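Reminder to self: tokens first, then the designed residues, so the page reads top to bottom the way the pipeline ran.
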């Protein structure tokens, strides 16, 4: 548990986290396999034991794609399809007020969201072009870069899935376990293997874990989703504090460069940051340590109540000392050496702008609007990079793109060309630092619209705040529901979608406001949650006015080196409204 600390001009804010409590003591078992046995205790656990989702690929190809949407078994549709990156998307025209009142089947369309899994965010131009072509040919030209380095497409029909898989897999891409109760995409540093200041390249260990465990039965039935983040870059650029397992590069005084191990992070409605186990993991031990932590979750994770079926709840019960002891004694068979914490980052982790690679060439980080691109944009991006001599790019956990291997003489011409297709290497304050989830346009859980709302706000703020001199990026995260896919509690300004009274007896889209959250960065020593002020809500219509007012108040009231987060935590409530 993080404790309250005093706020000074040079110290980051640390906010006490609400407890991610384990289930209350009960005579009923919690569904922990190693304690209670493997008898299923709810409907989800029943069907996962009957068929853990991997085999549904065959039924999609041989039955459903040939016989159409109406032939799909309900459990496959609402459960096992996720193991292959498929969710039904929201039916158009259903307003946010009906999200909680309708059954999922009433909200869903006959089309799918398809998530393309991109471990480490690593893409070739050929792969990028193929994703763009799949989007163009089968997804109405939709494409969103997520804050987990994937690409999501929409309007996908079940009849087209065999051809989509054929195209993706022909260039080494997959949708395997992109969703579901499985190890999700492995976040990796977007500058792995190229940054001049990198400590260690995690690409090899990410590929090893994927090769050994992705798509296998060993981890195809976890209590819930399991998220991984691994970085070798000192900017700590993979949001490791909100992943189930995080590995952050450190330089051990005796053992050399390896990784610091974190476990148990996740946000959603009960946020909890991951905690250090104090253990040092050598590069050649990463795969087995990952397997050990994932196995603990599989064997000891709570399965009876899905609302408690994340690793953070087990960590809350055990604590870090017991967790490390179980990992070492039951799963590794050897002790891990103690290790140091990674030092505070000295550079921004979004990699926006122009940076020199270790080989003398350059990489360029560019920003679309809140991750939204299109199939045509991806195709044009691939063509542009190849025309300027590059064949590699990366997606980032901040909904951005990093293009690699650019010769010095091509940097400025390429920046100009990228800007013409909506990808800015020198974005405005808010274009750089705004993240938005899918929202009500496609998501069955959403209450309000997000992508366009955020984009409209960015464009207006660019006009109104074009002359300000902000001391650092101010993160604005927009979420369409309470589940925090856009990491609202870990943003300077976090917005949780809800319906607000419109003053005429009805409702209007709006947001509850969280202020002053963030993860470890150049601006703060450690992660901390945003502050909530009772009654602090803003309508979508008034969002731009509110953000403008808030930023100007911060700039007028801040002390010499004070960050937005520090100011937001010390400011009077009236100054935050």
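Designed residues (577 positions):
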């Amino acid at each position: 548990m993080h404790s309250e600390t005093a706020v000074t001009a040079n110290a980051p804010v640390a906010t006490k986290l609400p407890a991610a409590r384990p289930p209350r003591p009960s005579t009923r078992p919690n569904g922990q396999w190693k304690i209670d046995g493997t008898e299923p205790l709810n409907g989800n656990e029943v069907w996962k034991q009957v068929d853990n989702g991997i085999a549904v690929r065959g039924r999609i190809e041989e039955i459903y794609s040939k016989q159409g949407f109406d032939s799909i078994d309900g459990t496959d549709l609402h459960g096992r399809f996720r193991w292959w990156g498929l969710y039904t998307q929201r039916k158009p025209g259903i307003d946010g007020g009906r999200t909680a009142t309708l059954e999922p089947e009433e909200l869903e369309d006959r089309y799918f969201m398809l998530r393309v899994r991109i471990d480490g965010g690593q893409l070739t131009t050929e792969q990028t072009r193929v994703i763009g072509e799949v989007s163009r040919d089968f997804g109405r030209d939709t494409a969103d870069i997520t804050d987990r380095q994937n690409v999501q497409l929409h309007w996908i029909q079940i009849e087209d899935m065999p051809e989509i898989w054929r195209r993706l897999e022909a260039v080494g891409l997959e949708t395997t376990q992109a969703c579901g109760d499985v190890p999700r995409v492995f976040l990796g540093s977007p500058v792995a293997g190229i940054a001049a200041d990198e400590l260690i390249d995690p690409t090899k260990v990410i590929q090893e874990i994927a090769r050994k465990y992705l798509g296998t039965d060993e981890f195809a039935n976890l209590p819930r989703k399991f998220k991984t983040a691994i970085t070798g870059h000192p900017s700590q650029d993979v949001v490791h504090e909100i992943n189930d397992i995080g590995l952050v590069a450190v330089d051990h005084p005796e053992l050399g460069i390896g990784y610091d191990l974190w476990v148990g992070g996740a946000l959603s409605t009960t946020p909890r940051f991951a905690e250090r186990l104090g253990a040092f993991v050598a590069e050649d031990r990463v795969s087995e340590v990952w397997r050990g932590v994932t196995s603990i979750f599989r064997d000891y994770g709570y399965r009876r109540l899905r609302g408690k079926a994340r690793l953070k709840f087990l960590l809350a019960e055990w604590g870090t000392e017991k967790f490390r002891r179980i990992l070492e004694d039951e799963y590794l068979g050897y002790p891990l050496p103690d290790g140091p914490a990674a030092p505070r980052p000295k550079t921004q982790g979004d990699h926006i702008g122009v940076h020199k690679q270790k080989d003398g060439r350059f990489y360029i980080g560019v920003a679309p609007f809140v991750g939204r691109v299109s199939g045509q944009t991806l195709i044009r991006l691939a063509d542009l990079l190849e025309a300027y001599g590059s064949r590699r790019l990366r997606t980032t956990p901040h909904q951005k793109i990093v293009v690699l291997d650019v010769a010095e003489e091509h940097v400025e011409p390429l920046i100009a060309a990228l800007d013409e297709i909506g990808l800015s290497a020198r974005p405005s304050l808010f274009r750089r630092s705004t993240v938005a989830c899918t929202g009500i346009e496609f998501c069955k859980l959403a209450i309000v619209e997000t992508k366009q709302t955020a984009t409209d706000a960015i464009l207006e703020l660019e006009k109104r705040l074009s002359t300000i001199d902000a001391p650092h990026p101010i993160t604005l995260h927009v979420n369409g529901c309470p589940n925090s896919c856009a990491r609202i509690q870990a943003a300077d300004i976090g917005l949780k979608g809800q319906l607000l009274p419109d003053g005429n007896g009805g409702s209007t889209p709006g947001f509850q406001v969280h202020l002053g959250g963030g993860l470890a960065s150049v601006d703060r020593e450690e992660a901390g949650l945003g502050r909530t002020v009772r009654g602090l809500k803003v309508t979508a219509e008034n969002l731009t006015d509110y953000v403008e007012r808030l930023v100007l108040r911060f700039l007028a009231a801040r002390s010499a080196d004070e960050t937005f987060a520090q100011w937001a935590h010390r400011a009077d409530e009236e100054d935050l409204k």
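The mean pLDDT is 95.
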